[in-house]
Structures are given as C-alpha cells and as structure tokens.
Design a protein that fits this description.
Strand order of the largest sheet: 1-2-3
Number of helices: 4
Oligomer: single chain
Shape: elongated
Strand content: 15-25%
Mean pLDDT: 90
Number of strands: 6
Radius of gyration: 17 Å
Helix content: 40-55%
C-alpha cells in the first residue's frame, strides 16, 4: 500500500483499491481479502533535498545548511544520490517551525 496524493492505493488478489484515507483503504482491502490472511505493508513517502526544499518553501542550500548543523530531521537513508527523509517528518518539521516562528510553509 502506498500514497499517491490525495489517495491511498492498495491491491489484493490483483484488484486495486483507491481511498482518500489510510483507514478507508485498509477496510476496502479487508473486504476484498474476505477470509484470507491480509498482510499490509505501507511504503512511506520519501523525499530528497529538492522535495524537502519545495515542501518548506526554501531553496536547496538552506536545507543543506540545516542538515549540516544537525537542525533537520534525521534521514532514513543516505543513498549514493543523497539523503532521503520521510515526507511526514519534513512536513512535521515545517509545521513545528511555523508554530515557533509564525511563518507559513509552501504546499
């Protein structure tokens, strides 16, 4: 199961379901699985520096500065192409900054 904003997408028995909420998607998958065991694997949305900058309304250099200062969320992985974070961690970081600084983040 994964998120394709604005919906959650999952499949069981070769049938795909799309729902607005995580719970709605899980419930639809359970109905399709009926009595079969259902294993749900949720793949988190991940973002790199460019996407994080877009989410926060910053440029890439500012994100890099916060990362180097240790003032940014911990990445979930460091790949050859760069670090990646969970989208929800970056969004929460942005909301926290807004609350503390009174600034808006880009959507």
């Amino acid at each position: 199961m994964h998120r394709e904003p604005p919906v959650w997408v999952g499949s069981v028995h070769g049938r795909e379901v799309r729902r607005r909420t995580l719970d709605g998607c899980v419930n639809a998958l359970r109905r399709l699985a009926s009595d079969d065991a259902l294993l749900i694997e949720v793949t988190p949305d991940v973002v790199g520096v460019s996407e994080a900058a877009t989410i926060l309304g910053w440029d890439r250099r500012r994100v890099a500065t916060y990362v180097s200062r240790g003032a940014f969320p911990e990445p979930i992985a460091a790949l050859a192409s760069g670090r990646v974070w969970r989208r929800e961690d970056v969004e929460a970081f942005g909301r926290d900054r807004v609350r503390r600084k009174g600034r808006r983040i880009a959507r």
